[in-house]
Amino acid sequence: MPMSKYESDAQLVKRVLKGDQQAFALLLERYKDAIYNLCYRMLGSPQEAEDASQETFLRLYASLGNYDSKRKFSTWALRIATNYCIDRLRRRHQGSVSLDTMPQDQEENSEPLIATLVSDELLPEEQLLRGEQSDEIERALQKLSPLYRTVLVLRYVEELSLDEIAEVLDIPVATVKTRLHRGREALRKALQQVEQSEHEEAADRQRMAGVSG
Amino acid sequence: MNCSQVRALLQAYVDGDLSPLARLRIGEHVQRCTSCAQYLGELEEEVEELAHLPKVSAGTSFTHEVMSRLPQATPWSAGSQEGSTLSSRRSWRWPLAAVAGVVAVLAGTAFLPSGPSFASVSGEGNIFHKQDAVAVPANTVVSGDLLVEGLPVYIQGSVRGDIYTIGAPIYLSPQAHVRQIVKVQTPIQRVVCRLRGWSDQGASWLLGR
Ligand SMILES: [Zn+2]
Asked: What are phi and psi for residue B198, nearest 5 degrees?
């Protein structure tokens, strides 16, 4: 049976392009967790991660005709997901942050290290589900600006090499290094912030714990 | 190498992004300088923690849900008129058969109106329904369906049936097990009310509209 033998991503893409929609389900199965993890760590809530992952695959499907089979499918998929998550984070900012604190250009130096409003918006609703497993590092990650969060997530959650990150983000490896460096610096600061506000948040958690018993 | 030179390179050291010679030099310095060693320890710990963030997985129905949202015509086939009309109605609608299923299931459930928001559950399992949230706590299994309107839903346990939400954000912990989440539209709500013999007026009161 031809169905039982392993097919490469490129072969599956070819099948989809010929009109075999079921081949897309196989690609979905292969990459849904990688994409979901990325979206979850980028956006910080399961609900948004679910939406963003679905949207990623719908976009991926719609642009499958542009897929260059010489590139790795996983890298291409992560790129679509990353761009979508960054867009989403930026849109989230636009409603609540003035333009001078959240510049539109992606100039390395003008990107604020920490975009505090992101996590402040999420925390009250997130408290309950995070509950006991609430992790300082997770919360600190959510405080980082999209660019820095992206490289850290690609490097340490998706476990990509510097070269692969450069390909996903379409930037030089040297820029990846700079962002990784600054990203970790920002993470240290964010961790300090989280620790500072820990006391207050612990009180909130206790209050919310009443809901989950 | 002095401390400030070492500090400047420690990030690259953690990344494994240094020449063997530079690595060696830094290794030597850290052996005898406790403050740089501590800084390095902090950096490594941070990286460890990032790398050990729990892996989450997309729900088991994820593939099915995406597949059901795909346009039926291939969007990439150039000049296909069919493709453009179909992709314009790409937004997902629950199939009619499933809607009929919702109504049937709800007909036998305890329905607890409490102002403009409500939560109801079919089958076994405890949910917590407070004024500002509904929760399925960890280690709790709801054997049937869960229907919630207008309240955030927090799920840490399992829901074996389907979850229907109306204007209610839903938050799943990575440990949560759910079969399916269906975002219902208001008209379906009204159908439910009709089935339960409530007038449109009653339905509007329930819906707070
Ligand atoms: Zn030193």
From this structure: -90, 145
**Res A101 pLDDT > 70:** no
C-alpha pair distances (Å), B132 with each of B85, B119, B164:
41, 11, 18
Can you list the domains of chain A with their CATH numbers? 7-212 (1.10.1740.10)
Count of beta carbons in the 10 Å neighbourhood of residue B81 = 8
Residue of B nearest to A59 (CA): B70
In three-state form (DSSP H/G/I as H, E/B as E, the rest C), the secondary structure along chain A is CHHHCCCCHHHHHHHHHCCCCHHHHHHHHHHHHHHHHHHHHHHCCHHHHHHHHHHHHHHHHHCHHHCCCCCCHHHHHHHHHHHHHHHHHHHHHHCCCCCCCCCCCCCHHHCCCECHHHHHHHHHHHHHHHHHHCCHHHHHHHHECHHHHHHHHHHHHCCCCHHHHHHHHCCCHHHHHHHHHHHHHHHHHHHHHHHHCHHHHHHHHHHHHHHHC
d(CA A44, CA A141): 9
pLDDT(B88) > 60: no
- Partner residue opposite B69 with nearest CB, options A54, A129, A141: A54
Cβ atoms of B50 and A156 closer than 8 Å: yes
**Nearest-by-Cβ selection for B53 from A128, A131, A138:** A138
Q: Compute the average pLDDT of residues B17-29.
A: 90
A37, A128, A137: residue with CB nearest B154: A128
Which tens digits make up the pLDDT trace of B72-85?
766 555 433 333 22
Strand partners, B119: B112, B148
B114 — pLDDT class (breaks 50, 70, 90):
very low
- And the tokens for B81? 């008129």
Per-residue pLDDT reduced to its tens digit, B143-194:
777 777 767 777 878 888 777 776 667 777 767 777 777 666 544 455 444 4
Q: How many CB pairs under 8 A join A and B?
A: 146
Range picked from A43-52, A88-97, B79-88, B191-200 for highest mean pLDDT: A43-52
Q: What is residue B162's predicted lDDT score, i.e. its pLDDT?
A: 73
What is the pLDDT, as a whole number, of residue A103? Answer: 35
Both tokens of A14, joined, read 């070819």
Mean pLDDT highest for which of A73-87, A101-115, B61-75, B123-137? A73-87
Distance from CA of B206 to the nearest CA of A (A): 23
